[in-house]
């Protein structure tokens, strides 16, 4: 079967767009082919900084003939209805329609529309230009003289050539001929911009890859990644070093080169006095280079690895030297930031009021930066005040939370006061992603308690589902206070997430609170540190997401959130533990049979309650006439006692065990005892017994929410 090769070559494709663009190309083309009635065996996309390529194997040579039947109106319908049917079906007269008979509805018209299949190259010649014209680039441009014309084609950067061939392996493929944006398709491309700019004629994919390889172009992005990774590791190892892993940078760099050449550069060891995170970010952000460290050692080395797109005649010495020169200049700036942040601020006099109000020690550089943040009156949100006001709220809340998580309130307040101080430092101004980490560095330099240092860095965490959560009690306290202040504040001004919109990352903040509490097994009644109501419901929704991601059944989550009494609804750890215990119970035969017994009891009660049947307020022991109902009543008495003890100590496995013991007497009761006895007193008493079973089980969860 024939194969399709398509290459769209442009002046440049930004690295961050390449992978998605190649995927979009594959989806748009293959969807279009399928919609046209074609099938194919496989498709794979490729990308480089200058080209998007699509290889489709086993494509039909032509689309299949199709027959479509469209049912029309009855033959005795009015003229207008018949004319509308003919227009919609593309028929000229009723003589072109068939008449069918339905025993119930009589005779009616049917249009039988036959479409002959088309050669695949014709379909491609229509499809690809449409894909190119409507390609979903996040940013695109017009170029050349044609850019002034209405409807001029747009592309991420000027499109330079289109290669499109189609045919079976055993024959010479044809060029699928079309023109889009003034560019006519062909069977040629060019190789590396500098090493092989000459035109190359290709036939099919294997030939294309081979000729590109000889023209200094590695088409497969994954292969370019591995070349860079392997060469970098070998080059570093030869110097007794190892590469500091950076998958994001590896992805980016592999999208910047077609012929990757890994080289090593150096900078003065004196720059290693800068924190390694700053060195790494400086080199990464400005030069897209990898840093190295001694094998098995601590800290960084003064050697870095760069990836060139040119195989230089001098082995890359001049390229490495040039990059080293730029790196040294950038590190000089970073060293200046690092040293400046450790010194005093020149306008200290103007900071005294803020310093005194916040209880800061203005002899210390980080305290000065916090006073500056307050004095600058930097807005956090127009309706929620300044950053300084927010820090005051977080500090007060941290002191309130500290005893609940076993933290020292004084240390929690100190950490909260300094947590945002590094926002005004030179280092964070240059590298915002270092906020928190730089604060920790500066806190260490001025002798802050280790827990305060940890809290300054970790209070932003967790930033995502794979991010670690704080574990130090002071860090936990400040992280909770920071997130709860955000949630309570935005709830107060009615800026809640709606649909997919969450501009203030409130879902992430709530999930952060949940993960901190669950990971550290902390019992914190959220109602004691924030207003209840719909914000608590928001936490419940996020808890459902978190627990489902961890494998919990959604119906068990709903069951526990709906039962157990209101007192437990603001303790997220308690909810999670009850869900785990309920899951273990229902995994047993006793648990499954107990659920069946519950449903039987609940269904009987619901039916009788709907009819208005009287149900006894209390169980009258003198009316228990059958041995099975006396046995069940005794089992319920014992279960209630054990439940009260288990729930009081939050031992939910014991609570589940207590419920499980109801299984056998409940089964015997339903087998031998008629609940709806003719005697009204007996019936009311037996219904009261079932109501006690339902109430006992609802202490753990609302079993009516459980599926299966």
Structure commentary:
- The protein has 708 residues and is an alpha+beta fold.
- It has 5 domains: 3-62 and 119-214, no CATH class; 66-115, no CATH class; 221-337, no CATH class; 348-521, Hypothetical protein af1432, CATH 1.10.3210; 582-705, Isoleucyl-tRNA Synthetase, Domain 1, CATH 1.10.730.10.
- 49% of the residues lie in helices and 13% in strands.
- The protein is built from 25 helices and 18 strands.
- The strands form 6 sheets. A 5-stranded antiparallel sheet has the order 2-3-1-7-8, covered by helices on one side. A 4-stranded antiparallel sheet has the order 13-15-16-14, sandwiched between helices.
- Helix 11 (387-405) crosses helix 16 (473-492) and helix 20 (572-586) runs parallel beside helix 23.
- It is flat and about 105 Å long.
- It starts with a strand and ends in a 10-residue tail after the last helix.
- The model has no long low-confidence stretch (mean pLDDT 93).
Structure summarized in a few sentences:
The chain is α+β, with helices and mostly antiparallel strands. It folds into five domains: 3-62 and 119-214, no CATH class; 66-115, no CATH class; 221-337, no CATH class; 348-521, Hypothetical protein af1432; 582-705, Orthogonal Bundle (Isoleucyl-tRNA Synthetase, Domain 1), CATH 1.10.730. 49% of the residues lie in helices and 13% in strands.
């Amino acid at each position: 079967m024939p194969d399709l090769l398509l290459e769209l070559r442009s002046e440049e494709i930004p690295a961050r767009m390449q992978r998605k663009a190649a995927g979009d190309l594959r989806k748009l083309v293959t969807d279009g082919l399928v919609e046209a009635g074609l099938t194919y065996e496989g498709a794979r996309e490729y990308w480089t900084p200058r080209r998007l390529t699509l290889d489709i194997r086993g494509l039909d040579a032509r689309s299949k003939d199709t027959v479509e039947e469209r049912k029309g109106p009855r033959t005795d319908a009015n003229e207008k209805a018949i004319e509308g049917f003919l227009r919609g079906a593309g028929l000229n007269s009723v003589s072109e329609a068939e008449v069918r008979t339905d025993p119930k509805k009589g005779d009616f018209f049917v249009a039988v529309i036959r479409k002959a299949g088309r050669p695949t190259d014709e379909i491609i010649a229509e499809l690809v230009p449409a894909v190119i014209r409507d390609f979903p680039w996040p940013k695109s441009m017009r170029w050349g003289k044609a850019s002034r014309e209405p409807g001029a084609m747009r592309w991420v950067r000027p499109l330079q050539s289109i290669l499109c061939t189609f045919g079976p392996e055993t024959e010479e493929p044809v060029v699928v001929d079309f023109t889009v944006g003034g560019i006519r398709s062909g069977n040629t491309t060019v190789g590396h911009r500098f090493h092989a700019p000459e035109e190359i004629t290709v036939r099919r994919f294997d030939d294309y890859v081979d000729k590109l390889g000889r023209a200094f172009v590695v088409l497969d992005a994954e292969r370019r990644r591995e070349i860079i990774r392997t060469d970098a590791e070998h080059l570093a190892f030869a110097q007794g070093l190892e590469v500091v892993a950076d998958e994001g940078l590896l992805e980016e760099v592999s999208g910047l080169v077609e012929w990757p050449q890994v080289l090593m550069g150096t900078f003065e060891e004196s720059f290693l006095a800068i924190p390694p995170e700053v060195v790494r970010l400086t080199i990464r952000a400005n030069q897209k280079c990898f840093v190295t460290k001694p094998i098995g050692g601590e800290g960084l080395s003064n050697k870095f690895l760069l990836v060139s797109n040119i195989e230089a005649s001098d082995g890359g010495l001049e390229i490495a030297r040039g990059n080293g020169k730029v790196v040294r200049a950038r590190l000089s700036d970073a060293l200046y930031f690092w040293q400046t942040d450790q010194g005093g601020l020149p306008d200290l006099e103007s900071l005294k009021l803020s310093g005194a109000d916040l209880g800061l020690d203005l002899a210390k550089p980080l305290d000065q930066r916090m006073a500056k943040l307050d004095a600058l009156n930097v807005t956090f949100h127009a309706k929620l005040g300044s950053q300084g006001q927010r820090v005051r709220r977080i500090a007060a809340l941290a002191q309130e939370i500290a005893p609940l998580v076993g933290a020292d309130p004084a240390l929690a307040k100190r950490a909260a006061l300094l947590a945002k101080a590094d926002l005004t430092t030179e280092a964070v101004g240059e590298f915002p992603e270092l906020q928190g980490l730089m604060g920790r560095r500066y806190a260490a330099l001025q002798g802050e308690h280790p827990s305060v240092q940890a809290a300054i860095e970790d209070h932003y965490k967790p930033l995502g589902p794979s991010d670690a959560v704080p574990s130090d009690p002071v860090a936990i306290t400040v992280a909770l206070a920071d997130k709860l202040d955000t949630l309570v504040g935005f709830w107060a001004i009615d800026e809640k997430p709606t649909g997919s919109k969450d501009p203030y990352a409130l879902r992430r903040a709530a999930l952060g609170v949940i993960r901190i509490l669950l990971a550290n097994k902390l019992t914190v009644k959220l109602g004691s540190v924030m207003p209840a109501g719909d914000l608590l419901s928001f936490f419940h929704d996020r808890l459902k997401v978190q627990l489902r991601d961890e494998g919990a059944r959604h119906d068990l989550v709903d069951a526990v959130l709906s039962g157990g009494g209101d007192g437990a609804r603001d303790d997220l750890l308690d909810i999670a533990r009850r869900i785990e215990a309920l899951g273990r119970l229902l995994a047993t035969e006793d648990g499954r049979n107990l659920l069946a017994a519950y449903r039987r009891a609940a269904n009987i009660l619901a039916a009788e309650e709907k009819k208005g049947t009287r149900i006894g307020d209390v169980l009258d022991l003198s009316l228990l006439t059958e041995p099975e109902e006396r046995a069940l009543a005794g089992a319920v008495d014992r279960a209630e006692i054990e439940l009260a003890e288990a729930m009081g100590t939050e031992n939910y496995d014991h609570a589940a065990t207590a419920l499980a013991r109801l299984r056998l007497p409940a089964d015997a009761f339903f087998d031998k005892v008629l609940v709806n006895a003719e005697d009204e007193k007996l019936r009311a008493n037996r219904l009261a017994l079932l109501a006690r079973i339902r109430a006992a089980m609802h202490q753990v969860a609302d079993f009516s929410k459980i599926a299966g």
